[in-house]
Design goal:
Length: about 160
C-alpha cells in the first residue's frame, strides 16, 4: 500500500441499499473536507438463474440475459442521479457501472484508476450470517492497494 500524504481521488462503491446511502454520505462529506474528487461505482453481478423461457399460454414473454443487464444498468444510473442530487448537487462526479464479481471489480478499478481511497458501506453482519454471506467490504479492504473506509450503518432511534 502506498503511503499517501493527501487523498485526491475517492471512490465510493454503492448499491441500492441504506448501507450504501450511509457510505455515500460519509464519502461525499469527506471529499468536501479534503477537497478531493469523487467517483461512484456500482457493480452488476451476472444473474445466476434467469427465466429465459416464457409461457405463451399465460402471456409471459421470455426475458434474456441482456434485458436483465440493461435493466440493472438503468437502475444504476438512477441510483447515481439520486446520490449526486442528495449529497453533491453541484459537484462533477465520475460514474462507473461495471459487470462481474463485486470485490474484484472495485479493487481492479481502484488500482487501474489510481484512487487514493475507497469508501464502502457494510451490513455489519456477524457470526453465522457473516460466515454464510461473507462481506464485500472486508474482502475489498484485504485486497485493495489503497486505504478503505468501511462505513457501518447505524439505525436511528
Amino acid at each position: 500500500m502506498k503511503n499517501l500524504q493527501t487523498f485526491e481521488r475517492i471512490l465510493i462503491a454503492v448499491d441500492d441499499s441504506k448501507y450504501a446511502q450511509c457510505a455515500a454520505d460519509y464519502g461525499f462529506s469527506l471529499a468536501k473536507k479534503l477537497n478531493a474528487s469523487v467517483s461512484l461505482v456500482h457493480i452488476n453481478e451476472y444473474p445466476i438463474a434467469t427465466n429465459i423461457t416464457g409461457d405463451p399460454i399465460l402471456g409471459d414473454s421470455s426475458m434474456v440475459l441482456p434485458n436483465i443487464m440493461d435493466i440493472q444498468n438503468e437502475q444504476a444510473k438512477k441510483l447515481f442521479e439520486t446520490l449526486k442530487n442528495t449529497f453533491a448537487p453541484e459537484t462533477i462526479v465520475e460514474e462507473y457501472i461495471l459487470e462481474g464479481d463485486t470485490t474484484n471489480e472495485i479493487v481492479n478499478l481502484a488500482k487501474e484508476q489510481h484512487f487514493s481511497m475507497i469508501v464502502i458501506g457494510t451490513h455489519s453482519r456477524t457470526g453465522f450470517d457473516h460466515f454464510i454471506s461473507g462481506s464485500v467490504a472486508s474482502s475489498v479492504s484485504r485486497h485493495a492497494d489503497c486505504p478503505v473506509l468501511i462505513v457501518p450503518f447505524i439505525e436511528s432511534k
